[in-house]
Amino acid sequence: MLPVLNYCKPTSWSVPAASHSASAAKNIYRFWSNQQVEAGAIRSSHRDEVVKPARAAEVVLAIQDTTDLNASQMAGSDDDRGG
Length: 83
Description:
By secondary structure, the protein is mainly alpha-helical. The chain has a domain at 1-31. It has helices at residues 2-6, 15-19, 22-33, 39-56. The longest helix has 18 residues, at 39-56.
């Protein structure tokens, strides 16, 4: 699963750039093309694990930040992988 998690980076990166190796990139493509993998099942599993501790808490703060900042063009940016 690590190669898929590695791709959770800026969307301007290509799969090979985000995966750091040819075999990891191949695994990502295999995962995406697997007919047994359902996005809804992944989301619901994640949601269920997030909700468990929230249900046990007396107070839950749901904070949302809609700020969007793209600093990739600024000097010193470490986003040098390109797309």
